[in-house]
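Example pasted here:
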Amino acid sequence: MHQESLDEQSLVEHITDLRKAIITSVLFFAMCFVFILVFMNQVIPILTSEDKLIMHGPLDVIRFYTGIAGSLSLGFSAPVIGYQIWKFARPALTDRENKTALSFIPGIFISFLTGIGFGFFVIFPTVFGFLMNLGTKNFGMMITAKEYFSFMMMTTIPLGFLFEIPLLLMFLTAVGMVTPTKLAEIRKYGYVLMAVLSALITPPDFISQLMVLTPLILLYELGVLLSKWMYRRKMGAGNEAEA
């Protein structure tokens, strides 16, 4: 009976912690959302550059603004959400896993921003310019804000997550879920998967797909190198502990 009472108390505590984590994450996201909406007139010129866009109606303006604010808010909220996830999972982790997970949170945010930056400043303008030039040879091009933003998200957001591949492989090695040897064995399958992803987020031309596939392959190889480094460090720590 006493054990059941303790289990119920533990369950209530976990639910309370989860509730706090969700509320904190949602509040931070909401603050970012409102802040970006307030300064939307300064944000729009940065995103649209000198491209001329059209709107079909007033509702398109609302969808466009909220879509931009939501996407940017999610990116800015990523470190807070990651920290809240770590706080909730902390009781189930060992001290070593706790320290490892916490140390990766800043890197996850930086990697995500790097991927977004690469997509926004390199992939998006290159691919968008290529398609516009291709279209203007035979047609008059009128781009709606919705189409422009959707295409921008398609060529930037996925890269933000894909740029976290090295850190993900390093983290999985740190917690013992993968090894450098295993990563080397599945390399060819990883390349095939990355080729499929690059084809999905780019137009059907070889140059655009190569521009995305090349950094993805380099990121995977960087992940393998970081995995080897983490594995040697982990083995060295284990040997010192035994000694």
Q: What stands out?
A: The two ends are 44 Å apart (CA to CA).
